[in-house]
Amino acid sequence: MDGEFTCEETIGAMKAIGGGNFLVCGRDQPSTLDATRAAVEAMAALPDTITPFPGGIVRSGSKVGSRYSGLFASTNDEYCPTLRGIAKNSKLRDGVTCVYEIVINGLSEAAIAAAMKAGITAACSHDVIAISAGNYGGKLGKFHFKLCEVMA
Q1: How far is 61 from 40, CA to CA, in rounded Å?
Q2: Could you say which DSSP state residue 74 is in?
Q3: For position 71, what pLDDT does the model report?
């Protein structure tokens, strides 16, 4: 309802890897969004990866699993600032009021790791409080990207 809708008639597909991700945790929405946009822009310059969400940014982070049997995913309450007071194990540092997630899919583990490193480096050149990642207890898939290893 806000413009023209277009779609591709044909698309290509190939095997790839999904599941690279990191969280940008900041003081407020404008500064955190600036840092996250810088991260997406830095990653876009590299080959063989995509950030599949609109603008490359996930505004409403989820986690694998739910307390409801019919849902396979739910809100990532540990990193949700508005749920800080009722989340069982909030992982947010003091001062964090905004968290954005970036999901990275790519053709290889090396490409995803390189994109993550470029994105994290770019985000950290802005005013952020912390960078973290959702590991979801290892339930997201067989590929795991540990931030300490990615940044080494």
Answers
A1: 16
A2: E
A3: 80
Copy the structure tokens of residue 7: 């779609």
Residue 123, classified by CB atoms within 10 Å of its CB into exposed (0-12), middle (13-18) or buried (19+), is buried
What's the distance, Cα to Cα, between the start and end of the chain in Å?
A: 46
Q: Which residues contact 121 (CB under 8 A, 6 or more apart)?
A: 42
Buried b (16+ CB within 10 A) or exposed e, 49-86: bbbeeeebbbeebbbbeeeeeeeeeeebbbbbeeeeee
Ranges 10-19, 27-36, 140-149, most confident: 27-36
Cα dihedral: 96, 57, 115, 13 (round 10): 150
Please state the pTM of the whole predicted model: 0.87
Set out the domains of the chain in order of their start, with CATH numbers.
28-145 (3.30.70.520)
